[in-house]
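Standup notes
- DV: blocked on the single-chain target, sequence here:
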Amino acid sequence: MIDPADVPIRRVRWDAARRIIRSLHPPTDLFEDIASPEDWPLLIAAEMKTNPRLAETIGNLDLVPPARRVSGPGATFLMAPFTHTSPDRPSRFSDGKSGVLYVGDMFETALAETIHHHQRFMAATAQKAGWTSQFRELVIDLSGVLHDIRGGLPDFAPWLMPDDYSAAQRLSAALRAAGSEGIVYPSVRHRGGNCVALFFPDLASNLRQGRHLDYHWDGRRVDLVRELSTPPRVFRVMQ
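- DV (later): unblocked, structure below
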């Protein structure tokens, strides 16, 4: 396997990249209400005296360096992956102790990635067939100097295993320790698509609300996606 120190670095800039998340309709919170992130610690401490549930809403702010925090419209969705972490929710480039913002280069890539993980959850919990939880599409601009493991090199293969994330997590830990901003990599779920794993929220900006979606579980797989437009549109998932 290639030494992490030898992984190439590229400037990556994507306009209108895509992220799809569960649609829980979170309320606007301090990340969006307060213009200056420098004010957050004092204001959070003051509000927690009367609102003990605030810590649960905001998460662990200490996980994001003050200089890398973001505020304003859409900041809730950019900060949440970094302040709400858990070893119970590891991912390809995190053991669950460090935050990562995953974004696809196009809608189809983000859709394929989320369908894969939703199918695993539905199968593991033996869910009945039917239309399941709603999702929302986020449209994001991003820019950063990232470690690039695209290109199909054999040395990159252990970091792109379909279901074994152990090598990828070791790579991520080594790159983080060396000051990396994140990783750009080929999507494992959507041929021809690319993804980024951003290690800081300020690499993303100009977040806009996209479509609302439903996924249909047929008992084995997600076979349909419904776009909640007027009128709704239903698309078959080809796998």
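- Follow-up: The chain has a mean pLDDT of 89.
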